[in-house]
Write a structure and sequence with these properties.
The complex is a heterodimer of chains A (about 180) and B (about 160). With about 180 residues, chain A is an alpha+beta fold. Chain A is built from five helices and five strands. A five-stranded antiparallel beta sheet of chain A has the order 1-5-4-3-2, covered by helices on one side. In chain A, helix 1 crosses helix 3 and helix 1 crosses helix 4. The longest helix of chain B is centred in the N-terminal third of the chain and has 25 residues. The chains are: A alpha+beta (about 180), B alpha/beta (about 160).
Chain lengths: ~180, ~160
């Protein structure tokens, strides 16, 4: 079998195989690029509110839960304590609340996982244990193979020798320019 | 060759599912020998003797680093008594949802000796001013930074296993 034919077959089949992971890397890559603009994993809802708290230095769990019932968003209580600034800090499921016990004014940070993209980001960052790290390495190698094998599939004026060569150079020059100028 | 894609996909799914089960078993399994679970306060009381030893510590998660959850801080009897836990490769990452949860961490208790061991919460991950800030995160960073500054020796835990209690 000719090398070019073998490459075409491997490129085709590995190409099909790697579509899913390429989408994961690409999509989560865009979200992670914008991590300074927004949290790529969670939507964060910040709400200011006012509750009536009993003027009591040692609020019980029941008193805190009762105070939380008046909030618009239904929350599940986890734990509370008075922090070193004298504010009441409450951990809830998917967030946290800080209340000034003197005024009753508070702020809630409520987190909501970004569906699908949360998992994609985890896969991208390989932060789900050792096994995925190795599987992800294999995926990376396949992705490189698909890219490199693609260079040698076409012959003629649209092949690597002419048209393809200039596009390959362009694709290298763009990141290289940014690397040289900004790094 | 035509079936390569299907065969590869099937093999990948098999490996992934097997791995997940194994990981769950690792997390759930309990050593049969008697184990001493320390609080964060206990850990600091015996800190000098514990350095470079495997410890099991439990505490409330007071902060999880927002950029990827690479580390969390377990709180002792108050906010100022806290210990940094690095998720490392074994744990992977902590989730923001774990804030306020009781975690039991198995890990190696370490002393911060070099810049690489240290953690600068105010400039987390080397981020500059363009980093997304919120008041709660800044407050958590301030408490952590203050408690680290006040301590003669700064300690942290290299996490090996994490269990939510």
């Amino acid at each position: 079998m000719k090398i070019r034919k073998l490459l075409r077959i491997l490129h085709r089949d590995f190409g099909y195989f790697i579509v899913g992971m390429t989408i994961v890397y690409g999509l989560s890559g865009i979200f992670l690029n914008h991590r300074h603009d927004f949290n790529p994993d969670y939507k964060i809802f910040i709400t200011d509110f006012h509750v009536d708290l009993q003027q009591n230095s040692k609020l019980t769990e029941q008193e805190v839960i009762k105070a939380l019932e008046s909030l618009e968003r239904k929350v599940v209580f986890k734990k509370h304590y008075i922090n070193n600034q004298g504010f009441l800090k409450i951990f809830i499921e998917n967030g946290e609340i800080v209340i000034n016990p003197e005024t009753g004014g508070g702020t809630m940070h409520y987190l909501q996982k970004r569906p699908i993209i949360f998992g994609m980001n985890k896969l991208h960052k390989a932060s789900i244990g050792s096994l995925w790290k190795w599987v992800s390495d294999v995926m990376g190698v396949i992705l490189i193979f698909v890219a490199v094998s693609g260079l040698f599939i076409l012959k003629g004026k649209r092949g690597l020798n002419r048209w393809g060569w200039w596009l390959v150079i362009l694709g290298i020059v763009v990141p290289l320019f940014f690397a040289l100028v900004y790094i | 060759m035509k079936n390569l894609a299907l065969v590869s996909l099937f093999a990948f799914l098999l490996i992934s599912c097997g791995g997940q089960k194994k990981q769950q078993q690792n997390t759930d399994s309990q050593p049969e020998t008697e184990i001493v679970v320390l609080t964060v306060d206990d850990l600091y009381e015996n800190a000098a003797d514990m350095v470079d030893k495997e410890v099991i510590v439990k505490g409330t998660v007071m902060h999880v680093c927002k950029q990827g959850g690479g580390r969390c801080f377990l709180m002792g009897s108050n906010e100022e008594i806290n210990i940094r836990v690095e998720a490392g490769e074994k744990i992977g990452a902590f989730n923001q949802e774990q804030m306020g949860s009781e975690l039991e961490i198995v890990g190696i208790f370490k002393e911060v000796k070099t810049e690489a061991d240290a953690h600068n919460p105010a400039g987390e991950h080397g981020e500059g001013d363009d980093h997304e800030h919120d008041a709660e995160m800044d407050e958590a960073h301030r408490i952590i930074a203050e408690s680290e500054e006040e301590a003669e020796v700064v300690y942290f835990i290299e996490g090996l296993k994490a269990k939510e209690l």
